[in-house]
Amino acid sequence: MPRARSPRRESPLTAVLGLGFALLAGGCGDPAPAPVLPPEASAPEAAARSRGLWVLCQGSQRVLDDTAKIPALLEDARALGATDLFVQVYRGGRAWFDSSLGDAAPWERAVAGAGGEDPLRTLVGRAHEAGLRVHAWLNVLSLADNRDAPLVRELGRDAVLVDQQGRSILDYPKLDVPKPDRRYYRMGTPAVWIDPAAPGVAPRLAETFAELAARYPELDGLHLDYIRYPGVLPFAPGSRFGVGLDMGHGAPTRERFRQETGLVAPSPPDRLGHANRWDAWRRDKVTELVRAISDGARAARPGIEISAAVWAHADRAYLSIGQDWRRWLEDDLLDFAVPMAYTLDPRIFRYQVEAFTSAGLGPRTWIGIGAWLFARRPGGALQQVSIAEEAGAAGIVLFSWDAIADAPALRDALAEQTREPADDS
Fold it and tell me: Under the phi-then-psi rule, with left for phi > 0, alpha for psi from -120 to 50, and beta for the rest, what region is 19?
């Protein structure tokens, strides 16, 4: 049975994140005008119960670097009807919180700039006073461009993903696919990617985030992002066809597979024996990492909520990047998931939302909306919010507060949509 949600107060992703999903959305540049869909006669008339904002640690606002910006965040949250803030505190192996395991240099600078005050603790306290819940947003398996992150220094190069040709991502030029393969493949999000199946990785990450939960017991939740293998363009449905760029072939990982299964890992494209078992094993290692983080955080701070930002194309997530997020909900590893339905196409958005809300896990699935795509055309964002609410979504999360704060027209349109009808008189 699903784990009971903790009581609510009141009512209940970055340049690199943007790049990967903008590609999925149909390309970069100015969004095309969104076609208007006719209203659905059968759509339920229930509004989303929860509304969140993703808040970047290294975006345009940098609220954790400057506590003077906290009032603006809270004012926008109120105007936008937010109930939850997903505040990024771990990116590139760097910590914007008191940490002995991550690189705490950003937190230390922020504390010094705030005269000894802990900006994260201050933000959480003020948000709670305003009736907002705060989730610590964590980039788990992506280290951005930080080749010297503490985890890599401690566990060594073997902690970083290796492709089927034996090339470490650490050796990729600009962290993207090297020539001649670059003619055919691209990393959806170029970064130093950690291998979830490499020995020592899962315990080290779980310990880092359990420390966060223990040191900040006032946090309402931990929010996992980049909890997957990297997306390589074009997508391949696993390794069994011997096509695409396959990740996770470090020698210690392959040896671990042999020890745990008695089988030899495939070597695409030529030797594909046991490919289905290999894909399932790697997928299980991501799930085991989620379990380790969830168990560690809940032990450190009972009642904390665990959520994850996940790919909205759930079957592709399962086959291509080892992200079986529906299982994470079924096994109660997450309290809720946020599929990132980042698209310019309202019909695709509606198809996805209706699939999520009609499924058995719908009450624990919030919808991530790529509001930044509509900075110059706010109507597209308003339309997607309406689609999600009319479909009865449990919640929505807007990416991101930074993008909305940088686009006054978008901010005002979303705030106007949020206002109660009585306020319009």
Answer: alpha
